[in-house]
Amino acid sequence: MKPAEPIVFVVDDDVSVREALEALIGNEGWEVESFPSAEEFLARPRVFRPSCLVLDLTLPNLTGLDLQRRVSDRGDMPIIFITSYGDVPTTVRAMKAGAVEFLTKPFSDEVLLSAIHQAVERSRAALDREEGVRKLRERYESLSRREQDVMRLVVVGRLNKQIGFELGISEITVKAHRGRVMRKMEAASLADLVNMAAKLRLVAAPE
Fold first, then answer.
1. Which tens digit of pLDDT belongs to each residue from 53-85?
2. Domain map (residue ranges) of the chain
3. How far, CA to CA in Å, does 191 sit from each of 39, 69, 175, 199?
4. How many angstroms from the chain centroid is the CA of residue 85?
5. 143-199 has which fold?
6. CA-to-CA distance for 44 and 67, rounded, in angstroms?
7. What digits encode the pLDDT tens for the residues 21-56?
8. Among candidate residues 20, 122, 128, 25, the one with its CA nearest the CA of residue 79
9. How would CATH label the architecture of 7-130?
10. How far apart are CA 34 and CA 53, in angstroms?
C-alpha cells in the first residue's frame, strides 16, 4: 500500500504571503492548502496523513493561539508559527502548547522548509504510533472477556496461582487462557505483553 503523501496547511490572512508560501511549499513537492482565516481551516475535514500547519500568529477573530487550542487534539499535525510581531511571552505560550517552531519574519526559505521537513516527519511518526495502537486494540478486543481478565492480571505481575484464586478458576485453566492471550496478542514474551498493555493504557508504562 502506497504511503499517504504529506500535506502542508497554511493559515494567513495576507493573500500575498499565502501565495508566496503556496509556491515555495509546492515547489518542494508537497501538497499545500491555504486558508485566510482560522474559521475556514476549522471547516475543512480533518486528514489522517502526514501533515503540518504553518500558522500566522495575528489572525482576525480567532488568533493563531486560539486555533492552536482548538486543534490541540491533533497530535499528528505539528504547528509552525510565523509572525511579524513575535515576543518572548507569546513564543513561550505557543511552544508550551506544543508548537514545533516559532519563526519571526523575515526568515529564510531554507529555515521554513527545514522546519516543515521536521514537522512532517514528526507527523508521520505520530500516525505510525496511532496505527500501531489501533492494531493492538483490535487484537485486545478479539480476546474473550475471561482472556482480557487474565491478561490484565498477568501484566501486573500476578502468578498463575494468584490469578486462578482471584478469578475462581483452576491454575490449568489460567495457563490455557494465558497461552491464548499470548497467541492472539502476538506477544513474543511477557515483557512484550507488558509493553502492549502499557500502550493500551491497561498498566503504567514500564520505566
1. 999 988 888 988 899 999 988 889 999 999 877
2. 7-130, 143-199
3. 46, 37, 17, 13
4. 29
5. Arc Repressor Mutant, subunit A (1.10.10)
6. 13
7. 999 999 999 999 999 999 999 999 998 899 999 999
8. 122
9. 3-Layer(aba) Sandwich (3.40)
10. 10
